[in-house]
Write a structure and sequence with these properties.
The protein is an alpha+beta fold. The chain is built from 13 helices and ten strands. The protein has a domain of 176 residues: Beta-Lactamase (2-Layer Sandwich). The strands form two sheets. A five-stranded antiparallel sheet has the order 2-1-5-4-3. Strands 6, 7, 8, 9 and 10 form a five-stranded antiparallel sheet that branches. Helix 2 crosses helix 13. The chain is elongated. It starts with a helix and ends with a strand. The N terminus is likely disordered.
């Protein structure tokens, strides 16, 4: 087992780790040009909304939810409070059964969760349109269609929701995970929400993957699922180097090199809690052996 794999196995949720992680996301080592030039984090640096301590607390709730599903309601509430919106939902759908396997609702829609699972999920015209990017309901479905939609009139509006900003966080042959941020009637989704989702998408995706792994771990299809999803994803390796090279023999799957670099910063700053790692580096490579970046552990 690689050192990185041992790290993932033994780590626990600690707020101080995430305070370091978020600071490094927006103030990275200037020698790492790849990460420094990432446009989505440049937007966050320029946002007056940015508060590293508050974001550290928010990101830590997603880590808690990844470890324990019972923490999802608290994570959703933390996100809605930070975004200044009226609610949020995470929905895990089973493609084989066409049913909702798990769902977590917060805010205005919390009392309607069972109605969605029992009836309205099958009528939802919005979720199938979502992909890895964030899309507003009001921008992808015309008013003429929404006015005729039972899902929209009897569920969305009944919840008191005016608009939704949604994304498909995970998509495998057997499951998909949809996340939606809800704004109440009479208010618009603000630029504050756009700035927030730029930051939280990566930890949200990682937490969603953990949910899928938990659901699939008891089924014979899990190994097949892991093999098939690689067709649309890329495997990256996180070797530790401190004069000697300690290879990551298993790697981790991410959609883009940008996501892999973000993950390297998370590993580096959590390992930095142990002073014995200072001066070492995490070398990120793709499945062809090409080096993506090198992240120093410690200062």
């Amino acid at each position: 087992m690689s050192l990185v794999a041992v790290f993932h196995r033994d780590r626990g949720p600690r707020l101080d780790e995430y305070q370091w992680n978020v600071v490094d996301f927006v103030d990275p080592n200037p020698n790492i040009a790849f990460w420094q030039n990432s446009p989505k984090f440049a937007r966050l640096r320029q946002s007056s909304f940015w508060d590293p301590v508050a974001m550290a607390s928010l990101v830590s709730t997603f880590h808690d939810a990844a470890v324990s599903p019972e923490a999802w309601p608290e994570a959703l509430k933390a996100l809605t409070d930070a975004a200044g919106v009226a609610g949020a939902a995470l929905i895990i759908s089973n493609k084989r059964t066409a049913n909702v396997d798990q769902a977590y609702f917060s805010g205005l829609s919390a009392g309607f969760k069972s109605d969605y699972i029992r009836h309205y999920a099958a009528l939802d015209p919005y979720s199938p349109l979502l992909d890895g990017s964030w899309i507003k309901l009001s921008e992808c479905l015309p008013d003429s269609m929404l006015r005729k939609s039972e899902w929209y009139n009897d569920f969305v509006l009944t919840c008191g929701v005016r608009d939704i900003l949604g994304a498909r966080l995970v998509d495998t042959p057997y499951h998909c995970v949809i996340f939606g941020i809800h704004q109440q009637i009479g208010r618009d989704l603000s630029d504050r929400v756009d700035s927030l989702v730029d930051l939280v998408t990566i930890p949200l995706k990682q937490a969603a993957w953990r949910c899928i792994e938990r659901l699939s771990s008891g089924s014979d299809a899990f190994d097949e699922l892991n093999t098939e999803v690689l067709a649309g994803q890329n495997r990256f390796y996180f070797d530790i180097e401190n004069g000697n090279r300690y290879p990551d023999k298993t790697g981790s799957v991410f959609s883009t090199p940008d996501d892999a670099v973000a993950h390297a910063f998370v590993i580096a700053q959590e390992l930095a809690q142990d002073g014995s790692w200072h001066g070492s580096s995490i070398v990120v490579t793709d499945d062809r052996g090409q080096e993506i970046t090198c992240v120093r552990i410690g200062r």
